[in-house]
């Protein structure tokens, strides 16, 4: 203490944060702050005489540095001249941008100090009691009692620890009078909220609870650094909120904790996060059931908030859908549809609410079997290339099919690659007699494949060798034709493309060429040999894929998987998901399935899993396996083929080798969990059996019925095996047919309630074609 002179000293309470967590905040960064003195600030006695605010600050007051009278709160009556305390923050004594304490983390605490002065001009000693109005926010750690003799002044620091969030008064009491200065500790930064889409018009934000706050503001902006609008004010114990949204529009969200007292409202900082709600399904179809001989009943779940539903139908899974029923109430959950026998019907549902409509539900399908007869028809007018008794595989790897089928105008058509390289398109009547033939002239080095697009157009892929390793030479052409086979546009793929390694040296080499379509996107998956690699000077083989915009016929690389070598490839779209299958001998040495969820969307996600691994050395071309088909059901992806046992024992036999026979298998991969189930469809002893099981093909009847075809030959006699399996792998029906040639060299088609294919039969050096038709029963 020092002896007073005639100069009257004032007491100054100075808040000075020691650590950097008392973050610097400018006037533009905070909603309100502890004030500082200015040249025109009223004196302490003038402040005492003013009325303090009795309610929250108005919207105009929030966000500015307030005047000293708002910062000081005196609980006594008038001040006495001989003992005087006033609180004042001057710029010369303290940086005016360090006025609000901010807690670093919820469990943090830190030490700070208050500097004050007090004068005693009375004729008696006085006692100063120092306290905090809210120990949960601010705890005094220095002496809480001080004495001041008459005629003396004191200038000392009060030490305290900040432990929580909210307002707290540092109070100096003298007798019955007290002098207070308010300190604000702002909330910890709200953690980045978790945002998930809960349905087609709503998202949910989730965050962690903050202690000491009065509530949360949920704010939204159209731009990351734009102006944020408060769309909800929530209680302090709230940790989530569901908000309505429009799909395909990006918004930025933040959740801000705030504190408030009788003077002002102050907010903490926050992170902002962008989110674009995707168009998604509302209600889902639960079943499509047969009702009598010509009706289907479609059932779906009631959707909360729905005002109605629209039901769409197609005879092709990814084809053109038409609305066949409209429900004008959200309570309606079924409808009855008249259908034709032997035709698969695919259904999907739109849910309507006050904001609009949902995306389509997952597709569900059904077929009413037709009692057709078995047919064997000689087709002397059809010319096919000989398959020499082979199926997809000549030896260790597959090759592109040379015969294809499609339906148009209620008629069956066959597309056959000729020895000249041209295509011949045959139109057949209901008796499977050729009524029309059309020739499409083509020039190419390597045949690729054919696909009937869901847009009504046809797509033909042909290739050109690139032995000089040109990056600019066209190596694959995908030619678009309309439904009358008039050529439209062509997508050209150049030699310098990549899938991990550069180049196409030879397209379609040691593999297949598959195409599938979703909307206006055509996905082409195939194989190639690469440009010479620098590490061994060889042309290695792998898969490679392209996405083709069918409106513009422009192709871009779209490599969702990488397999080297890849000896067979399959690609299928279903419900906005893309499924890709590779038969690999090295990386990986297995049958590998790649699933691309939300294909083409911002939240696209890719996962790969091994379905059946092979014994042997990496890169050994011999795998003892031939993959026959892949289809996608409601719950599972189904893969069929023939293989030697490897680790999947048949009896007591495992392993693989040139001396072993093949058995047919079925693999299921759960679309959600990716769980893999493997089952043998035949169980002939691989070492001792005389039965030869031929290559398989799979034909999809509905989302829950799949036909697997293969021939078993014993003692020169061949028997066709027809078996129907459910989506979960349960055998539903089976039948055997004699005197039928099925080599698996083309993909059979479901046509008018029958499964149809044409086999090239070589006899006396000539190739004759024969058509087979068996009823698609189950």
Helix-strand layout with pairing:
Blueprint: E1 2-3, E2 14-17, E3 32-33, H1 44-49, E4 64-65, H2 68-71, E5 72-74, E6 83-84, E7 101-102, E8 110-120, E9 126-132, E10 138-140, E11 145-148, E12 152-162, E13 166-174, E14 177-186, E15 194-199, E16 202-206, E17 215-221, E18 229-234, E19 240-244, E20 250-260, E21 265-267, E22 273-276, E23 285-291, E24 295-300, E25 308-314, E26 322-327, E27 334-338, E28 345-353, E29 356-357, E30 364-366, E31 375-378, E32 403-408, E33 411-417, E34 423-428, E35 434-440, E36 446-452, E37 458-463, E38 474-481, E39 487-494, E40 498-499, E41 501-502, E42 506-507, E43 513-518, E44 521-529, E45 541-549, E46 554-557, E47 564-574, E48 577-587, E49 590-597, E50 605-613, E51 625-632, E52 636-643, E53 646-650, E54 653-655, E55 663-670, E56 676-680, E57 692-693, E58 697-702, E59 705-714, E60 717-725, E61 731-738, E62 749-751, E63 754-763, E64 766-775
Parallel strand pairs: 3-4, 7-14
Antiparallel strand pairs: 1-12, 2-8, 5-14, 6-8, 8-12, 9-11, 9-13, 10-12, 13-14, 15-16, 16-19, 17-18, 17-20, 20-21, 20-22, 23-24, 24-27, 25-26, 25-28, 28-29, 28-30, 31-64, 32-33, 33-34, 34-35, 36-37, 37-38, 38-39, 40-41, 42-44, 43-44, 44-45, 45-46, 47-48, 48-49, 49-50, 51-52, 52-55, 53-54, 55-56, ...
């Amino acid at each position: 203490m020092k002896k007073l002179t005639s100069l009257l000293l004032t007491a100054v309470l100075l808040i000075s944060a020691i650590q950097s967590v008392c973050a610097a905040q400018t006037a533009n960064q905070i909603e309100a702050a502890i004030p500082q003195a200015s040249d025109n600030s009223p004196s302490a006695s003038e402040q005492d005489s003013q009325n303090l605010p009795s309610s929250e600050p108005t919207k105009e007051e929030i966000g500015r540095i307030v005047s000293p009278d708002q910062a000081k709160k005196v609980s006594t009556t008038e001040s006495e001249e001989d003992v005087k305390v006033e609180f004042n923050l001057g710029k010369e004594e303290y940086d005016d941008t360090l006025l609000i304490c901010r807690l670093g983390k919820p469990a943090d605490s830190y030490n700070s100090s208050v500097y004050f002065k007090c004068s005693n001009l009375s004729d008696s000693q006085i006692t100063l009691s120092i306290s905090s109005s809210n120990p949960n926010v601010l705890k005094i750690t220095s002496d809480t009692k001080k004495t001041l003799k008459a005629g003396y002044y004191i200038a000392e620091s009060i030490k305290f620890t900040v432990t929580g969030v909210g307002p707290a008064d540092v109070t100096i009491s003298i007798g019955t009078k007290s002098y207070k200065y308010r300190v604000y500790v702002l909330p910890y930064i709200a953690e980045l909220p978790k945002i998930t889409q809960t349905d087609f018009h709503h998202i949910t934000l989730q965050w962690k609870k903050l202690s000491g706050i009065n509530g949360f503001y949920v704010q939204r902006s159209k731009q990351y650094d734009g102006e944020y609008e408060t769309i909800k004010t929530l209680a302090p114990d709230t940790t989530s909120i569901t908000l309505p949204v429009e799909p395909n529009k990006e918004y930025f969200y933040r959740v801000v904790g705030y504190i408030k007292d009788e003077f002002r409202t102050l907010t903490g900082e926050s992170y902002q996060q962008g989110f674009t709600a995707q168009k998604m399904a509302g209600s889902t179809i639960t079943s499509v059931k047969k009702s009598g001989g010509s009706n289907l009943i479609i059932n779906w779940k009631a959707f909360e908030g729905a005002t109605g539903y629209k039901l769409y139908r197609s005879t092709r899974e990814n084809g053109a859908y038409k609305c066949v029923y409209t429900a004008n109430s959200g309570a309606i959950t079924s409808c009855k549809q008249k259908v034709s026998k032997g035709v698969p019907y695919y259904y999907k549902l739109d849910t309507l609410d006050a904001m609009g409509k949902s995306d389509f539900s997952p597709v569900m399908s059904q077929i009413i079997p037709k009692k057709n007869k078995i047919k064997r028809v000689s087709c002397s007018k059809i010319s096919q290339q000989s398959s020499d008794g082979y199926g997809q595989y000549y030896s260790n790897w597959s090759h592109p099919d040379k015969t294809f089928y499609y339906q148009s105008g209620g008629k069956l058509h066959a597309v056959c690659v000729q020895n000249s390289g041209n295509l011949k398109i045959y139109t057949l009547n209901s008796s499977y007699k050729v009524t029309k033939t059309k020739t499409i002239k083509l020039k190419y080095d390597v045949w690729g494949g054919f696909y009937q697009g869901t847009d009504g157009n046809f797509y033909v892929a042909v290739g050109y060798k690139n032995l000089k390793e040109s990056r600019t030479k066209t190596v694959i052409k995908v030619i678009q034709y309309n439904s009358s086979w008039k050529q439209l546009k062509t997508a050209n793929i150049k030699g310098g493309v990549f899938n991990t390694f550069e180049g196409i040296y030879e397209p379609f080499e040691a593999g297949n060429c598959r195409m599938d379509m979703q909307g206006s996107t055509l996905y082409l998956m195939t194989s190639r040999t690469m440009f010479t690699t620098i590490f061994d000077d060889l042309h290695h083989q792998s898969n490679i894929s392209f996405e083709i915009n069918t409106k513009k016929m422009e192709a871009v690389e779209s490599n969702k998987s990488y397999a080297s070598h890849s000896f067979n490839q399959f690609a299928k779209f279903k419900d906005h998901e893309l499924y890709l299958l590779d038969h690999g001998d090295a990386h990986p040495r297995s049958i590998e399935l790649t699933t691309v969820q939300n294909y083409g969307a911002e939240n696209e996600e890719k996962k790969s899993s091994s379905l059946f691994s092979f014994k042997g050395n990496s890169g050994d071309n011999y795998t003892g396996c031939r993959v026959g088909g892949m289809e996608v059901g409601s719950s599972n992806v189904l893969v069929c083929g023939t293989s030697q046992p490897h680790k999947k024992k048949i009896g007591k036999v495992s392993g693989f080798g040139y001396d072993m026979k093949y058995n047919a298998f079925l693999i299921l991969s759960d679309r959600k969990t990716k769980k893999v189930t493997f089952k043998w469809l035949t169980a002939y002893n691989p070492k001792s059996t005389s039965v030869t099981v031929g290559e398989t093909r799979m034909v999809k009847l509905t989302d829950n019925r799949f036909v697997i075809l293969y021939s078993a030959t014993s003692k020169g006699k061949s028997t066709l095996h027809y078996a129907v399996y459910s989506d979960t792998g349960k055998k539903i029906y089976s039948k055997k047919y004699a005197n039928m040639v099925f080599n698996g060299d083309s993909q059979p088609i479901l046509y008018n309630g029958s499964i149809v294919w044409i086999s090239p039969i070589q006899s006396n050096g000539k190739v004759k074609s024969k058509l087979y038709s068996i009823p698609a029963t189950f």
